[in-house]
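Structure in, sequence out. Go:
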């Protein structure tokens, strides 16, 4: 029973559509960063050197880039709400899942051979069911707002009628 419940909760936490990222891809990860009470989007672009548990809700990629001569690696949970989007910039031909050998290389020896791919098709992760659900929710919210506005207008009209009645009584006195 509890295993099924855990599985259900995990499935609910998953994003409906995630870009298919593989080792060797050069990706651009858009991540939400919170600083005080402000939020902004920070972009981290680099080579995916590792993919973990791609079918799980804890799917993770490790992205590496070299900045000012210093190698920087960052792990991103694919289904995290902090990860806005991931776009594949370039695909490369690699023969392993964990590209740890790139850490010891620099310059030309760190290059990976590029492979042609359809960039728009890979990065287009629209989910029609989710879009239809979102449109339905917007329509429901609009109908609810219209009903609230009509109720408020009726309430205002009743208040104005009472106010006019009170003013009429005071004018007679």
């Amino acid at each position: 029973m509890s295993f099924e419940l855990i599985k259900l909760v995990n499935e609910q936490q998953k994003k409906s559509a995630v870009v298919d990222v593989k080792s060797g891809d050069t990706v651009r990860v858009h991540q939400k960063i919170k600083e005080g009470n402000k939020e902004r989007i920070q972009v981290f672009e680099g080579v995916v050197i590792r993919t973990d548990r791609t079918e799980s809700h804890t799917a993770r990629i490790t992205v590496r880039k070299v900045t000012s001569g210093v190698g920087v690696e960052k792990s991103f949970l694919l289904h995290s709400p902090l990860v806005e989007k991931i776009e594949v910039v370039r695909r490369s031909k690699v023969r392993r899942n964990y590209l740890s050998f790139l850490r010891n290389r620099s310059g030309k020896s760190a290059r990976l051979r590029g492979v042609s791919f359809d960039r728009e098709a890979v990065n287009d992760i629209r989910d029609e069911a989710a879009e239809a659900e979102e449109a339905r929710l917007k329509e429901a919210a609009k109908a609810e707002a219209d009903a609230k506005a009509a109720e408020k207008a009726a309430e205002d009209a009743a208040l104005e009628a009472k106010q006019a009645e009170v003013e009429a009584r005071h004018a007679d006195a």
